[in-house]
Amino acid sequence: MVSEKIPSAAPSRLAALCIPLRLATGWGPYPKKLSLLAALMLVLLRLSIGWQFYSEGTDKIQNGFDSSRFLSAARGPFADHFHSVVWDRDGGLRLDDEATQRRWQWYRNTAGSHFGFDDAQQKQADQVLKRTLNQYQFVLDNNVDELAEVDFGRQRLADLAARPERNDVASLIGQKETIEREWRQKLDPILSEVDNAWENLERDMNAVASDDQLRRHGHLELPPLRDQRIDTTVMDKFVPWFDCTIGVLLILGLFTPVAALAAAGFLFSVFLSQFPPATGPTSTYYQLIESMACLVIASTGAGRFAGLDSIIHAAFHRGRSHEQG
Fold first, then answer.
1. Cβ(27)–Cβ(285) under 8 Å?
2. pLDDT of 167
3. Is residue 233 within 8 Å of residue 88, measured between CB atoms?
4. Phi and psi for 293 in degrees, rounded to 5?
5. How far from 165 is each of 47, 174, 177, CA to CA, in Å?
6. What is the Cα–Cα distance from 325 to 320, expressed in whole angstroms?
7. Considering only CA atoms, which of 297, 274, 302 is closest in space to residue 82?
8. Full-model pTM
9. CA of 226: how far to CAs of 86, 171, 198, 223, 264, in Å?
10. CA-CA-CA-CA torsion for 284, 287, 288, 294, nearest 10 degrees?
């Protein structure tokens, strides 16, 4: 009796497990009606956008990146959402005397254990903390009237935000923008002085450590006060590496649909932050156009033209043909 050979389920299971990878490189076959010139244009488009993301990402890593100013200036129907992710936009955290003192005292104690300060260094660290607390208190005492006006402006803005129906009236929208502009003109100089105190504390506390201690234990950062898990202090560390990663993937043509969709979403969020966009060199229409270009790259599987996706896609195609054969 000849036993019937039962086909193994392993290839089909492997194919199912690889579905996400196939989606990441482009599911369908190569476009059959795409000319050589059109394919070349897709490659150039992919490379140019990839290089832009990569170069901007490396620049942000080298020179630092702060999105708070841009997001603070968000306007339009989505402005409140973008404002909500700006770290300490109203200065409430940095102007909280008790919370600031607790954080700075914690930082001073952490520095002592982090670097292993001796008795002399412990005294120097105490002096640094005392000096910075005096600087902070001087800022608060020297701006009592301004802080009272800041509190009043904050309350006026909160009252306007609690009545969303007023946002449909053009004159009241202009009134809100005027109040906020005047409020920031009073608040920003005070916060700048407070930020200097934070920076001085971190710099001077690390300066107490010897060169050997710094070399062995590394620089100790002073973490800011935060009232939410995700804000610009977190995003600003993530965005530069996001830009670099997207740029590298697009340049290599690797997982191109996923990378291009992520780029399109990021660029479209920039467009929405200034909706409706103004005209001129600062217009976010440019981000909208580039976002649409990323969708073209994603939908055509442009990484399969002179990209690594072509190798992955060809391997799947050969494996499927072998399985069917």
1. no
2. 55
3. no
4. -65, -40
5. 46, 14, 16
6. 8
7. 274
8. 0.77
9. 11, 35, 14, 9, 30
10. 180
CA 69 to CA 311: how far, in whole Å? 43
Run means of pLDDT, 10 residues per run, the chain, 325 residues? 47 53 55 77 96 97 92 85 90 94 97 96 97 96 92 81 60 69 88 96 97 96 91 93 97 94 96 83 87 93 88 72 53
Q: What is the pLDDT of residue 1?
A: 44
Read off the DSSP letter of residue 91: S
Which residue matches tokens 């009073």? Answer: 186
As a residue count, the chain comes to: 325
Could you tell me if 197 and 136 are in contact, meaning their C-beta atoms sit under 8 angstroms apart? Answer: yes
Task: Identify which of 20, 66, 52 has the alpha carbon closest to the alpha carbon of residue 224.
Answer: 66
Among residues 18, 26, 55, 30, which one has the least CA distance to residue 260? 26
**150 class by beta-carbon count within 10 Å (0-12 exposed, 13-18 middle, 19+ buried):** buried
Q: CA end-to-end span of the chain, whole Å?
A: 26
Q: How far apart are CA 267 and CA 56, in angstroms?
A: 13
Query: Which sign, positive or negative, has the C-alpha torsion 49, 47, 44, 302?
Result: negative
Task: Tell me 88's DSSP state.
Answer: T
Q: Which residues of 47-64 are buried (b: 16+ CB within 10 A; e: fewer)?
A: bebbebbbebbeebeeee
Give the per-residue pLDDT at 311: 87
Q: How far is residue 4's CA from residue 9's CA, in Å, rounded to a whole number?
A: 15
Which pLDDT score is estimated for 6? 47
Q: What angle do CA 184, 186, 190 make, to 5 degrees?
A: 100
